[in-house]
Amino acid sequence: MNFDPHYFPSPSRRMLTYGQRGMVATSQPLAAQAGVDMLKRGGNAVDAAIATAAALTVVEPTSNGIGGDAFAIVWINGELHGLNASGPAPRGISVEAVKALGHDEMPAHGLVPVTVPGAPAAWAALSERFGKLPFAELLAPAIEFATQGYAVTPVASQLWQAAVKRYGQYTGEEFAPWFAHFAPAGRAPAPGEAWRSPEMATTLQAIAATRGRDFYEGELADRLDAFSRQHGGFLRRDDLAAYQPEWVTPISTRYRGHDIWEIPPNGSGLIALQALGMLEALGDEPRDPVERLHRRIEATKLAYVDGLHYITEGDAMQASVAQLLAADYLERRAAQIGPQALEPVHGNPLSGGTVYLATADGDGNMVSFIQSNYEGFGSGMVVPGTGISLQNRGWSFSLAPDHANVLAAGKRSYHTIIPGFITRDDRAVGPFGVMGGYMQPQGHVQVVASMLEDRLNPQAALDLPRWKWTGGRTVEVEPEFPDPLAQALSRRGHRIVKCHDGLTFGRGQIILRHPDTGVLYGGTEPRTDGAVLPW
């Protein structure tokens, strides 16, 4: 990537941030500060990522937690590594067992959709393989925030209020610990109001002292097991004890002279790669902004319906990653893109609530890391006395026996959270990510295309008004989306809907490195409380 200043000419709501010795970008300033502190203590980008991730469970509990999942792409010593720390369904669950509880589809909340949490294991695995600082030191900022408290940020407060309303519809006693911990006064904390959690501090101390094993094999595991048994859940201590995160080889596609990398399924990064691969197959983009955007929307739609049809646990997929990214298949899919909006259907290649963070250090190491409880706080389940909010990732499973993502014991579900990374000529360009459920692959396509095709800087790429395909020919757009462009897309058959909830369009961060000088260029979202802190 050419980092000449003229390469990034677009005006931006925020100025691009520059750094030299390191950088951390994430959705909460205190968490970013925790990561930079590790760099200043002699840690590397991996140490910074772990400290930031742990801090985010405390200072942004509205989008992730100790009981969530994580994925990471790590560039270190000139090589790229992937970590899948999503957890499987409990061994005792089945479609029949869920239906016997009266469910026709996987419920969103409660203990049924809780799968094995992977986040603590991710922190420990990253530290053991690549970290420089003691593991306990990395969790110290998170423990301090939980013990001493912090002022709640505006977006977090907004999401907190929504969670109080969401879980307030339930009368089951299993939801009482969530309210006791996160809303003891019966409401969410207001912006600027102090919040603290001695229970989370104690839990994080146990994780720090045991490199995460207490969560999976010790007292914390016993508490998770007991709470699940008490309220009819399926998660057991044996499920926790058997869990190990998986080191994986990232997958990629070629786009505009760069290699774009994602975690392989069960993650949904394959969708972004397919869409970018289709755009690459179409060749140079036209100068007409309407045609350009129309192509990107159509490619994303075609990739998404493929992803929703095929993506699940890797060995359970009905089509392989290689088949879905094959050049001839992407060319056939791209050929379906015409002047009018499609009603997309999946192809057949066989015939031919989340937080993101990016870190970088002065030695060239970089990390793309994402962590989530799935929907906001997740399942609405908090293990009493621990501050552990459990994710609801099992909500993604289907109960239909012929669906690729059908629920099965020990199976990992389709996963929305995806970290991204860009390289060129076997050199790191940098990490990027856009959190936000099913918006994430769409956000990846939009920011990558904006940087590599439209030649915008990272901050400008994040600032652009976004669009979001929601099904059929319907595309939601942000209020700032230009009306003439929306009207032109409507004439092409798209159903354009202005959406005033900006939080549904994702929240991302980007760090890129100049290939010659090593200077870092960072951007963070205007849609969140984020910060990009240089060193």
SSE blueprint:
Blueprint lengths: L16 E3 L2 E5 L2 H12 L4 H15 L9 E8 L2 E7 L9 H6 L18 H12 L4 H14 L1 E2 L2 H14 L8 H7 L11 E2 L2 H13 L2 H5 L1 H12 L6 H5 L4 E3 L2 E5 L2 E5 L6 H13 L7 H22 L10 H4 L2 H8 L19 E8 L4 E7 L8 E3 L4 E3 L29 E5 L2 E9 L4 H13 L5 H6 L3 E5 L2 E4 L5 H9 L3 E4 L8 E7 L6 E5 L6 E4 L1
Parallel strand pairs: 17-18
Antiparallel strand pairs: 1-20, 2-10, 2-21, 3-4, 3-11, 4-7, 5-6, 8-9, 9-14, 10-11, 12-13, 14-15, 15-19, 16-17, 19-20
Helix pairs in contact: 1-2, 2-4, 2-5, 5-8, 12-13, 12-15, 12-16
Mean pLDDT: 92
Gross morphology is globular
User: In DSSP terms, counting alpha (H) and pi (I) runs of 4 or more, how many helices?
Assistant: 18
Q: Strand content of the residues, in percent?
A: 15-25%
Could you say how many structural domains there are in total?
2
Detail the poorly predicted runs: 3-12
Summing up helix and strand content along with how strands pair, one would put the structural category as alpha+beta
Strand order of the largest sheet: 1-20-19-15-14-9-8
Round the Cα radius of gyration to an integer and report it. Answer: 22 Å
Major sheet description: 7 strands, antiparallel
- What is the number of E strands? 21
Distance between the termini: 22 Å
Percent of residues in helices comes to: 25-40%
InterPro entries: GGT-like_enzyme, GGT_lsub, GGT_ssub_C, Ntn_hydrolases_N
Organism: Billgrantia campisalis
Protein name: Gamma-glutamyltransferase family protein
